[in-house]
Specification:
Layout (H helix, E strand, L loop, with lengths): L3 E5 L6 H12 L2 E4 H9 L3 H8 L1 H15 L5 E4 L8 H10 E8 L1 H8 L13 H19 L2 E5 L5 H13 L2
Parallel strand pairs: 1-3, 1-4, 2-3, 4-5
Helix pairs in contact: 1-8, 2-4, 3-4
The structure holds shikimate-3-phosphate.
Length: 171
């Protein structure tokens, strides 16, 4: 069994919510990579993107992944773009059981459509942007994970947590 659990998946797939509940259920610490970036920079993700661009954000993301993946007994919630960088996945995989929250596009859209804190989705047609990014990233999520759990609008948090917990304990 690996020391940690890392949750990957598209924006709005529930990584933070599931991660918190999972950490509680397994008595592990919870770490949210985006929150660590915000803490370090003392400004929001949207401000970082606006003021310094996406590449600068990705550098911070790599730095925090590097730091957190060395820790142990933690559940790590990652940002949706973490899989873009192969090094991130390698580092996470060294110490973590990597779980993909495989949420369908309509469920993602419903969850993110009224939220304004995701710079990549602050565009005229967010649905189109989701489909575009999803099509590029889906394969990366799939090949990067040790376990994948399907999520849709009818999924219950408790069931998702139980599925991951059981798979992790038996890993
Ligand atoms: C991003 C996802 C966001 C955040 C940033 C970029 C992405 O995290 O890291 O806005 O590229 O998918 P969530 O997946 O928690 O929304």
């Amino acid at each position: 069994m690996k020391e940690n659990i890392a949750l990957i998946g598209f924006m709005g797939s529930g990584k933070t919510t599931v991660g918190r509940a999972l950490a509680k259920a397994l008595e592990m610490k919870f770490v949210d990579i985006d929150k660590e970036i915000v803490k370090l920079e003392k400004r929001s993700v949207a401000e970082i993107f606006q003021e310094n661009g996406e590449e600068y954000f990705r550098e911070l993301e790599r730095k925090i992944i590097d730091k957190e993946s060395r820790d142990n007994n933690i559940v790590i919630s990652t940002g949706g773009g973490v899989i873009i960088d192969n090094e991130n996945i390698k580092k996470l995989k060294n110490t973590s059981f990597v779980v993909y929250l495989n949420c369908d596009i309509d469920c993602i859209f419903e969850r993110v459509k009224n939220k304004k804190h995701r710079p990549l989705l602050n565009v005229d047609d967010p649905y189109k942007k989701i489909v575009e990014l999803y099509n590029k990233r889906e394969i990366l999520y799939k090949i990067s994970c040790d376990f994948s759990v399907d999520i849709n609008s009818n999924s219950y948090l408790y069931d998702t947590v139980e599925k991951i917990k059981n798979k992790y304990i038996n890993s």
